Amino acid sequence: MASTSQNYHDEVNKQNIEKMRAVLTELPKFCKQFFRGIENTTSTRTRLGYALDLRIFFEFIQERNTAMRRIPITDYPLALLDQLTKEDIEEYLDYLELYYKDDKEYRNDERGKARKLASLRSFYHYFYTSELIEKDVASLVPMPKLHEKEIIRLDPDEVAQLLDLVENGEDLTAAEQRYHRVTKVRDLALLTLLLGTGIRVSECVGLDIKDVDFKNGGIKIRRKGGYEAVVYFGPEVEDALLDYMDQRTHKIPAEGHEDALFLSMQNRRITVRAVEKLVKKYASKVTSLKKITPHKLRSTYGTNLYRETGDIYLVADVLGHKDVNTTRKHYAAQQEENRKRAAKAVKLREP
To answer: What parts of the chain have a pLDDT lower than 50?
Structure first.
């Protein structure tokens, strides 16, 4: 009987498209042209993000612009973009810092503002280069200055403590230990894989059984952007995965989840949210000062790889960064440590 398992990434894309179409019904009609225009050059996740950001922008216009308050947002004309000024965009950024919707408070820091301005710039740029508007006022507003955030990662001893905890469950509560007895092998394989390869949590939950190649010691993943890549793993990851595969063969997956590598307690493909929760559960026992997420495990791997190899291009390649400057920015602290070591490495005169 043929498998009815759904491809994880195709399913996520389908959900994103459905959500975006729902948001589009609340936006001006001319927005549809923008999303058609960028369809071949952007991911479904990016387009959904743009749609949500534009909804906030047009809700701001309706709330603050007296002339537009009487018109439904869906009826806003394209000519509105030429009527707005640089000051309107700047006021929008101020508004983003703190606003209310449906009695709920929303805040944006510099990164949140920068992302929403980037969405608006793409929006304006599309219609300006298509010669459908005369001014590109969004491009006149400078991007908010971003302050470098300290990279949070686990120290080598904390990595060992984390994996020991997953293996023995000693510091877990009685309730947590009941679950742990069932999920220990899976959790150890999953966390060892994240820490031993640096893959993203979305790449991890999207893995199918057939994507694991024990002969060559690699896993085939779908990177951000949709392209496939093979990431290789070492003996510790291999051992943890083999232990889990022994257990996985005895599971009866829910319909549509037959191919999924990592299964939930309900025998469905494990979700990103579930992985985030299990990482938080274990990591909080190891360190209360650091807020550890799956992405922090990725940073931990990247730091360890850079520390061992000193090769920023290798780290960028393994982590799937398209631009090595992204990697360099994240691991600048390690580069600084290396430079300090270099200063002490050369002796001019023997003491």
So the answer is: 1-5
Quote the CA–CA distance of 93 and 254 in Å, as a whole number: 46
Q: Say if 10-140 and 156-343 have the same CATH topology.
A: no
Other beta carbons within 10 Å of 312: 21
**99, 106 in Cβ contact below 8 A?**
yes
Superfamily of domain 10-140 in CATH is Tyrosine recombinase, N-terminal domain (1.10.150.130)
Angle in degrees, CA 66, 72, 75, rounded to 5: 110
Q: How many CB atoms lie within 10 A of CB 308?
A: 10
Strand segments, DSSP code E, in 5-79 are: none
Q: Which is nearest to 317 in space by CA: 223, 226, 238, 241?
A: 223
Strand-pairing partners, residue 221, are 229
3 state DSSP class of 227: coil
Q: Which 3 state secondary structure label does DSSP give 104?
A: strand
- pTM above 0.85? no
CA-CA distance, 264 to 344, in Å (whole number)?
A: 51
Residue 278 contacts by C-beta under 8 Å, 6 or more apart in sequence? 183, 187, 190, 191
Fold of 156-343: hpI Integrase; Chain A (1.10.443)
Q: Tell me, rounded to whole angstroms, the distance of Cα 230 from its chain centroid.
A: 19
